[in-house]
Amino acid sequence: MKAIALVSTAGGTGRTTLTAALAVLLARRGRQVVALDFDPQNLLGAQLGIDALPTTGLAQALLDAGTAWHASTWRNADGVLFVPYGQVSVADSTHCDARLAAEPRWLGDALAELDLPEDGVVLLDTARYPSQQAEHALRCADLALCVTPPEPVACTTLVARLAALRAACANLRIVVNRLHPARDMQRDVLAMLGAALGDGLPLAQRVHLDVAMPESFARGTWLFDDAPHSQASHDLQGLANWLDAWLEASLDARHDAPLAGPAMAPRREDPSS
User: pTM of the prediction?
Assistant: First the structure.
């Protein structure tokens, strides 16, 4: 399996909505998908169609070493296995951060318990970078998508954190979300961001703004179902296609690579148990 972290350096980037949409689109392409909420805001479940915010999840396993994190999992209508963060108080959130700081392999060990096939994928929705949750996700990720709107503050914070992000995950891509090309300011900000990133990290993925997105969420539907021919739907499908192709290429590369050691027996844990 592969792990893909979705991170952001500013709030309000649409990262959680994008994580949920990509999880569903990849599941519809036949992938086994786990959407893991590693953000104390605990909102990914709402985006995936879960009626109530889950009270238990990863946070409770962080607070109590005897609690199994996979005891609280959900599966949505599209077959995405969802792992919530769980609800925490301010004090509990501080304790979670302290444990993550003390155990830098905690999330990696948790992901190792998943019994996904080779072509399966885990999408990690993280707290805003820098944070312990984002650091853990980047450390585990085979690919990191940094989501940013083309706004001055968001892009400025991204540029300021770019070196640290690259150091945390070598395979980093930028996703420009909520693009409104008719706004002159956004075009200027994109030009500035492109110059700061340089040739080594092109702005390859863009998702346009669509005011119908919140309405689809309120109805419990998806924009790409309600308005499949809209620009934003086209962008989301294109990004999902790109990820699907990346996953397939990664699998092919693994099969073509020489064996580095003896094969390991498959894990038998059930992630939904």
Answer: 0.90
